[in-house]
Amino acid sequence: MQKTRFTLGALAACLSFASLAAEVPAGTPLAASQEIIRHIKDEPASLDPAKAVGLPEIPVIRDLFEGLTSQDASGKTVPGVATSWQTSDNKTWIFTLRKDARWSNGDPVTAADFVYSWQRLVDPKTSSTFAWFAALAGIENAAAIVKGEMSADKLGVSAVDATHLKVTLDKPLPWFASLTSNFSLFPVPQKVIAGFGEQWTRPGNLVGNGAYQLESRVVNEKLVLVRNSHYWDDAHSVLTKVTFLPLSSESSAAKRYRAGEIDITESFPKEQFAMLKKQLPGQVYTPDQLGTYYYAFNTRKGPTADARVRQALSWSIDRQIIAGKVVGSGEKPAWHFTPDVTAGFSPKASFIQQHSQAELNLQAKALLAAAGYGPSKPLDLTLLYNSSENNQKIAIAVASMWKKNLGVNVKLQNQEWKTYIDSRSSGNFDVIRASWVGDYNEPSTFLSLLGSTHSGNISRFNSKEYDAILAQASQLTDAQARNAAYNRAEQLIADQAPIAPIYQYTNGRLIKPYVKGYPINNPEDVAYSRQLYIVQH
């Protein structure tokens, strides 16, 4: 295979070096105060990259830490802690680390820090919900270590010296370098963790290597970050303070935005889309996002352990109504789990895409009858969702569809984020609201989620055939053959229905006109605060 080499010089030739931080056009009048307030969707479960469980904490963690690579405004891979990387076979990779990379306490960031951090990620003792990512990335022995079959020191990562990291994969992966921008592969400080244990992420204790550091935190109220003067590219950062406000209520976020208390929201109430576009011209954004909103069925116990029940429930959801009217801010129906915007995926038309909702409802009723449910024995279900207006509206609409089309009695149950995570992890649900935003732009970031060993497999779906399809796809170098394998995986999802994809995300948010630099067209919605700046207003 042709040798691949990326160097900082080569990248700088086609990308502005300043794209790693804020790109402020010459002559731009900056505001005197460079402090910003960003909304996040809930209180972070953890600020430890290995302990993160969902979307609320990721924007904060991206500011506090930095991986080997980062992303520019369009989502392209650019240098982070690594200045260059090289491989001759897409299986053995050497990353060269910048000599001026520093932790926020001034200590150098070394290759040994990445070895420690990645071993800690996969070590079962850490109980990381993202340990699967190292296995998905193909790091040698990661899968066996996660299962407890090998010790963490057998992971395919080693420090050649202080500034050279060697990574060995168990299969060729041309896009491996791009995966290292994922937060789960960020380095963490061994010395600090050894000193503080579980308390290491508290203000005053937390040491990171990102552009910002944690100044203070009031749980369920705010997290305040200030500049990390030891960050290697601190000279190109503009914002001096970033405050994250955790608000699960989209209405509250929008209200505080309009009151001038928030500069960027993570979302807004979908029913206000038309009104907001009219009243806040140039401040409402809804580009396609690499994400899918879905319901997961418990495949291990209860009525949803029967595939016929799962398929009936999935078919009787009118996705056109949910996407177009219930949500109604530019979202598309999800006919597959993998979003249309995903690179390297050309989907075949699915069964539900080719039939009218009336036809699907009739077939769904027949499936449910075959499973033993009907007017004399109605199906009783609990639908669990984490608290938000959007989730509640969708749950009410879907419950109504199931009642009307199938006679199903649905009990709606909403829980705050941490309680919801506990219920999800313990399998204490029949049907549960879920979502997935891609960790990288390739179909496997979605399809791998339903692999039998994936810790993010909420439905506990277990199919040897499905696992074999994904394993085969990971070995294919021909794009067409790989796409065919991904379509077979999607077909199996449709047949077994461990999940019901509902709609494809848009990156809906409100951004003040004086905030510049937000990478609105990044399909993964990766937005580092170091990219942002505030102009005079």
Notes on the protein architecture:
The chain has helices spanning 8-14, 58-64, 111-122, 132-136, 142-146, 176-179, 190-196, 250-258, 273-279, 307-315, 319-327, 357-370, 389-406, 417-426, 444-447, 464-475, 479-496, and strands spanning 4-6, 35-40, 69-71, 77-79, 82-87, 92-97, 157-161, 164-168, 212-218, 222-227, 241-246, 284-285, 288-297, 332-333, 380-386, 409-415, 431-437, 499-506, 509-510, 515-516, 533-534. The longest helix is centred in the C-terminal third of the chain and has 18 residues, at 389-406. It starts with a strand and ends with a strand. With 537 residues, it is α+β, with helices and mostly antiparallel strands. The chain is globular and about 70 Å long. A six-stranded mixed sheet has the order 14-18-13-17-15-16, with helices on both faces. It has a five-stranded antiparallel sheet with strand order 1-5-6-8-7. The model is unreliable at 1-19 (pLDDT under 50). It contains 17 helices and 21 strands. 29% of the residues lie in helices and 20% in strands. A hairpin with a 5-residue loop joins strand 3 and strand 4.
Portion in beta strands = 15-25%
Low-confidence stretches: 1-19
| Broad structural category | alpha+beta
Our measurement of the CA-to-CA distance between the termini, rounded to an integer number of angstroms, reads 53 Å
Number of helices: 17
Major sheet characteristics: 6 strands, mixed
Q: Radius of gyration over alpha carbons?
A: 23 Å
- What is the helical fraction, as a range of percent? 25-40%
Adjacency order of strands in the biggest sheet: 14-18-13-17-15-16
Mean pLDDT reading? 93
The shape, in one word, is globular
Kindly state the number of beta strands.
Answer: 21
